[in-house]
Amino acid sequence: MIEILSPTELPRARAAGALVADILQTLRSRAAVGTNLLDVDRWARAMITGAGAQSCYVDYEPSFGRGPFGHHICTSVNDAVLHGLPHDYALADGDLLTLDLAVSLRGVVADSAVSFVVGEARPPESVAMIDATERALSAGIAAARPGARIGDLSHAIGSVLAGAGYPINTQFGGHGVGSTMHQDPHVANAGRPGRGFTLRPGLLLALEPWVMADTDELVTDADGWTLRSATGCRTAHSEHTIAITDDGAEILTLPTGAAVG
Questions:
Q1: Which residues bind a divalent metal cation 2 per the record (predicted)?
Q2: Binding site annotation covers 239?
Q3: What angle separates helix 150-163 from helix 124-142, to the nearest 10 degrees?
Q4: Domains of the chain by range and CATH?
């Protein structure tokens, strides 16, 4: 299913995007050495429900998962890259943490993710990998405009990731959003320009470049959800929800600085 929002629906998408961004910014500021991932999940729940929104993850039950996700946010640490299930773990100095959040507010979903290093340590390889995903995300957004093809976005993203020397997994990537979290079209993190669905105003896309330092192979953790690098290497993931407009793309998941929770 591909949904196209009307101009009157776009303000609701902006509100959902701002909420996601502000929650992520708040959680990032609270995530410190010693913070437990279960506390991060509890904080996310309080902010989401306090805003009158719903997490898209609590009842999320795709074919590749093990039952409902049951938590409000994905928390992926170090070699975990996607669908990190919050669990009893205290963050350590130098951990690479990815927070991935999708909420529904007034019937419209926004989805975003941010990776950062916890504490005072700054491992150069981790910083470089995060930077590569952020640059790839910017390239994908820059390629998004009416008349462009999905392959144009995938090519822009993949060119940055490959140029930085990272293997690329195309099984999981970006996707359409709307009244639900995961919709068509799929936006792979590598692709050929001029191919795929033609973008048009009102389309919402979640673009999400992610990489693993030395492999493109994923393994599923014992929890049935968390996807990790097959080699145990570190990973990074950046994501924004954008709206295709008449003259380009609008990033919906930029923080406003508003206090949440």
A1: 111, 175, 208, 239
A2: yes
A3: 160
A4: 10-251 (3.90.230.10)
Annotated binding-site residue? 72: no
Distance from chain centroid for Cα 29 = 18
3-class SS of residue 132? helix
Q: Which residue reads 């938590």 in tokens? A: 71
Say if CB 17 and CB 241 are below 8 A apart.
Answer: yes
Residues in the chain, overall count: 261
Ligand-binding site membership of 111 (annotated): yes
Q: What is the pLDDT of residues 28-41, one digit of tens each?
A: 999 999 999 999 99
SS3 102: strand
> What is the C-alpha separation between 251 and 144, in angstroms, rounded?
11
Calpha distance 218→81 (Å, rounded):
9
CA distance 20 to 17: 5
Q: Which amino acid is at 221?
A: D
Structure tokens at 66: 């093990």
152 is in an annotated binding site: no
Whole-angstrom distance, CA of residue 98 vs CA of residue 86: 11
Tell whether residue 246 is among the known ligand binding residues: no
Q: Does the annotation flag 208 for ligand binding?
A: yes
Token output for 151 = 């392959």
Query: What are the C-alpha distances in Å from 40 to residues 26, 45, 46, 170?
Result: 10, 9, 10, 29
Q: Answer yes or no: is 87 a known binding residue.
A: no
- d(C-alpha 222, C-alpha 42), whole Å: 22
pLDDT digits (tens, 9 = 90+) for 157-205: 999 999 999 999 999 999 999 999 999 999 999 999 999 999 999 999 9
Tokens of 196: 């795929």
